[in-house]
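User: Before I run my own analysis I want an independent prediction to cross-check against. Here's the chain; please return only the structure tokens and, at the end, one sentence I can use as a sanity check.
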Amino acid sequence: MTIEAVPIIAAYAEIAAASDAVVVEGVGGFRVPFSDDFDSADMAEQLNLPVILVVGLRLGCISHALLTVEAVVARNLVLAGWVANEVDPEMRFADENVAALAQRIPAPLLGRVPFMENPSAEQAATFIDLAGLPGWPHARGN
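Assistant: Structure tokens:
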């Protein structure tokens, strides 16, 4: 199965024209293939979207996050911020991992979402603050 870029780009343009701000959620990572020659990073590039990296706190997250940051920067995209997502309630040294990431990721930490047994987007959103992002409606006092 392939995902075609044109309908997504057209839908984004229509939504963006009718909105103060648009959040485009990724689909499992920065380099998810949509077809043989097009992936989610290409989509971010075509839409010229700033990237908010969500880091699932688990073993290996520091390396994974830093490699993703390198990929975002290599495409000349803006890394607007990052969110720590506690996906493993048994993770040891979670605070230390967040601190190590904060020291190394050249963008602000926008929030830390705790592990939730029955998560919802609405509940998770209460732990994230986008108000300081450039161009975000709340940043203009709306």
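Sanity check: The longest helix spans residues 61-74.
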